[in-house]
Specification:
By secondary structure, the chain is α+β, with helices and mostly antiparallel strands. It is 19% helix and 19% strand.
Amino acid sequence: MPSVVRMWDLDMKRHQYGIEHVTDEDRAYRGSRFSDVQAAIFANPYQRVWAAPGQPPLPVHTVTLGDMLRVLPFGRRHLFRQATERGVDSHADLRWGPDRMGFRRIVHPNGICLTGRWRITAQTDYSGYFRTGSEALIVGRYSNCCTETQRGRNRSLSMVGKLFPTTDPNHTDLLPTASFFTQQDIGGGSEDFINDIELRNAPNTTAWRRGLGLPILLITAATFARVDRMPSIRQLYEIAELGKPPGAPTRAPRFMRLLVAPEQPRIAGESLDFRDEIMAQIYDRGDPAAKRTLKFLIEVSDEGTTRGPAFYERRTIENWRRIGEIVYDRAVVSYNGDFVIHFNHPTWRDDPNDPSTATRVKERKVRWAPTR
């Protein structure tokens, strides 16, 4: 891709899905470098300098019922199921494809990527990068579930993260990565500011809030359930196993939530796009230099219950403990951030600390091996 997105390329890509299934490129993954992933997501911003005069508006990639029907099993090539399977099976951090144009996200198409540090500062009994004193580089993506990006409308916002087990951004070895997934109520919420949103790996589901988008939500949930059993919870064992000595037991928290730190400013603006809101946390309009950081607090718990049917799941989680923080110091809204970066979805385990209880094993025979 060129350094700045050509709009005709983007218009063409909106109507193409690319290779959604697992490919040899996915199977060949042996780790990645933070510097390569960071360079990729910053390579082709939609705006050369965010909010500078003369820059085009940020694109909004739509998700419609028609799109979903095109990619269902009675549509062509079962694309949505293939994409769901690939999300679980592929550990690739970047999926370029043969045309170097990536792939179209069927859900969560509009996002903003961020880079920074993950730190665990409190005493814990967990393993891997949940252990006390852990610090890692992180690439995050904050996105909306479907089409709505503006405040004042129902949105289900989400943040996923990819941890690199190093604090050196120029580390030259290929490293394994570990991902987490958090989201506000899957049905959506009315919060105007990201400061007020609670992002959890096990969110509630208030399906009726989707309104006319309810069929899309039901299709998404049904497809995820067929592939990976539990569509509304993403377990945290990948983080708890990153950097863990071989043979040592896995100890992962059951629940995690991310909260914007209270000292972060509240960005005003009627109908403000969440991507502009996040950019404004770090940058001044028209200035490419970062001026501030965006901090999220990491809280965990091992005590919680779920009640209600799938379309109205309510989770009561108790005894949250603050154990660390994520501090982002760079952000970008880019083509590669929407079409190329990839986050592995941890498959469901009956016991999150026991790999032998994993639901899906079909494509997970490839294991990471260090390579230069």
